């Protein structure tokens, strides 16, 4: 997740559409898969699957490079032609090209850096603006790539416009992965199928039904569910052993999904504690904490967040 500087509401429909296209273009270049996303007026979320870096042919490298420039200038066309020629010849220059391109692939940081830089350039040029567009480095959470952790994170992202009071059903908000999948956009359908593949949902209709059931809960899977306010949620949670239904708590801005660092089963999270400790330069190894406030199933995080689980 990344936010605009000072949280300014800069993005209207045109800006959201340009950003949506850039997210898809850069994902194709980087070799990552967008499982779902949501673009709001001052921030966006994206859930990515990052595969192990495979061997990439020179032809595929050039295809990906050209994806970044769907309407190339003469300079960009000449640059692509020169790169292709150098790759065919081989040698040290070809290796330099391969290394430069491959270092930008199969990496979340490089993906976000490229999206943010390209969109900043477009936005500033289009609005006669200069300077920083984004507040700071993006927030990231490592999510276990299957089952309840992946599905819950996807639902949380798709519910952004519901939490903001823009729509009562995310299918009616055009700038999120769920709405695209409902509308029949193939790449979005593949994303929701992957999210629910462990439930045997190999077809988009089954995957969408499962996703809708998680978003709305069993009793409201067809009719929708009213927004859960932060005040009402805190009132319930302040009660002894107070819990919210999962579909209700996902309508609150829950910090686990932006600040939890690692989200997954306790075993999954425990497997990354050493690496997280080294990266964050913590003196003591972190503990694994189960999520509070609802029946989250097997979900755990590293950052406990104590009682401040809401933004």
Key phrases:
311 residues; alpha+beta; 4-stranded mixed β-sheet; 3-stranded antiparallel β-sheet; 7 strands; 8% strand
* Helix share, percent: 40-55%
Structural class: alpha+beta
Instruction: Write out the strand line-up for the largest beta sheet, numbering strands in chain order.
Output: 4-5-7-6
Question: Which range does the strand content fall in?
Answer: 5-15%
Shape: globular
- Element string (H = helix, E = strand): EHEEHHHHEHHHHHHHHEHHEE
How is the secondary structure organized here?
Layout: E1 2-3, H1 13-30, E2 33-39, E3 43-49, H2 58-67, H3 74-89, H4 92-102, H5 108-126, E4 142-143, H6 147-158, H7 160-163, H8 177-182, H9 186-195, H10 204-216, H11 230-237, H12 246-249, H13 256-259, E5 262-264, H14 266-270, H15 273-280, E6 289-290, E7 300-301
Parallel strand pairs: 4-5
Antiparallel strand pairs: 1-3, 2-3, 5-7, 6-7
Helix pairs in contact: 1-2, 1-5, 2-3, 3-4, 9-10
